[in-house]
Amino acid sequence: MFLGQLGKWLLGLLLLLNIRAFPTVWHFRIFRPLIYIWSSHFFFKIRAIFMSKSAKENAFERWINSLTPVGASPFQSTLFRSWASIDESDYNFHLSNSSYAKALDAARFKLACHLLPKFIIAGGVIPLAGTHFHFVREIPILAKYEVRVTLGAWDEKWIYIVCRFVTKGQGKNKGSSTAKKNDAEISPSFFHAPVNSSGVSMSSTPVNSTTPVPPTDMDKLASKLLSTGEPDGATLHTITISQMCFKMGRITVPPAVVFAANGLCVPPVSTSDTPTPEPYSLTNPPPHWDKVKPIASTLHGGSIKKLQAFFRGGWKELPEEERWWQEAMGGVVEQQRRQNLQVLDMLRKGMEGAREMR
Questions:
Q1: Which SUPFAM superfamilies does the UniProt entry name for this protein (predicted)?
Q2: Phi and psi at residue 92, to the nearest 5°
Q3: Residue 174, SS3?
Q4: Which among 29, 46, 149, 279 is placed 20 to 30 Å from 287, CA to CA?
Q5: pLDDT 10s digits, 192-211
Q6: Cα–Cα dist 340/354, whole Å
Q7: Tens digit of pLDDT for each residue in 300-334?
């Protein structure tokens, strides 16, 4: 009797410790931001049942605008928080290599829902073409960690998402010393695993290098963008770069079009009359927002169907001088995009070149 009861308790404990590996749990973690949008939309429709058509259109406009980051920078970051559960850790009691990819699915989707709600609501998808991992140090089992997700750069087709896995433990006053320590411990080469005289490190824990590896031009460029120090003193564990694109059906949509249609834009330029201009927002929209309204706003003749048609190729019909998304993504945004792309596009070219290797 006692052994039977003990067996039940152990089985229950085993199931509890591995609950995040249960069916549909992964899906919930991934689609949690989208579930929030869906549920919010559902409750909106319930509240709007007895509204007049004009009141319903106004209410829908307020709801969708509450999700849209009008005036935000495309380089804005989001946070995804998780922890190294038992089922996601390996025999070394560290977060397993495959679990980083699982966390990235949720982290990238959260960024998409945060920055691009109109594209998501219109039925757009963001397929993944590849991910590059740079393991710096392990994340111990049961440790809490953050994934700091940032849009790194884009071109006419691809976007590059930079994710930094970090843990907190040091005080903020230790930020500078932590960054220096991180820089000192990491092999100077960003694009391959740290090595020593015995060979290549194949685990997520880097092997200390006994022979310094001279940095290449590629490494020098990468170090400017992908610093190993965190401003708040958090410990950096892994950096990843994901290559993705935007699709509406089978049609590839240029990133700049998607960003500008969701309200992302360059900040207002200061002048002698307005040395500190008011940031763009819904109450102070950027100049290009008046071009988006006839496409996406029900109050201005737009609709979800019109937005879908625009993403599917309607943008091609506009002459070059009327392409408002170029102005929205110009200025300092374009300057930063070009600088970051010099580093991040090297990964794509390197991986495409590897296809020819036999």
A1: Thioesterase/thiol ester dehydrase-isomerase
A2: -90, 5
A3: helix
A4: 149
A5: 333 333 333 334 444 444 44
A6: 22
A7: 999 999 999 999 999 999 999 999 999 999 999 99
Is the residue at 274 inside a domain? yes
- pLDDT score of 225: 53
Give a yes or no: residue 3 inside a domain.
no
Question: Measured between alpha carbons, how far is 234 from 171 in angstroms, rounded to an integer?
Answer: 8
The answer to the question of residue 327 being in a domain is: yes
Q: For residue 147, what are the β-bridge partners?
A: 80, 165
In this structure, what token pair is assigned to residue 82? 């998780």
Other Cβ atoms within 10 Å of 120 Cβ, number? 20
Residue 177 falls inside a structural domain: no
Mention every residue, 6+ apart, whose C-beta is less than 8 A from residue 255: 154, 155, 156, 157, 158, 159, 245, 246
- Assess contact for 203 and 92: CB atoms under 8 A: yes
For the stretch 298-303, contacts whose Cβ atoms lie closer than 8 Å and that sit 24 or more positions apart, written own/partner, are 298/57, 298/60, 298/61, 299/57, 299/58, 299/61
Q: For residues 280 and 68, what is the distance between their CA atoms, to the nearest angstrom?
A: 13
Domain count, the chain: 1
The two tokens of residue 327 are 């102005």
- Closest by CA to 10, choosing from 2, 50, 199, is 2
Token code pair at residue 197? 């005289």
Q: Containing domain of residue 316, as a range?
A: 257-354
Rg of the chain, C-alpha, whole Å: 23
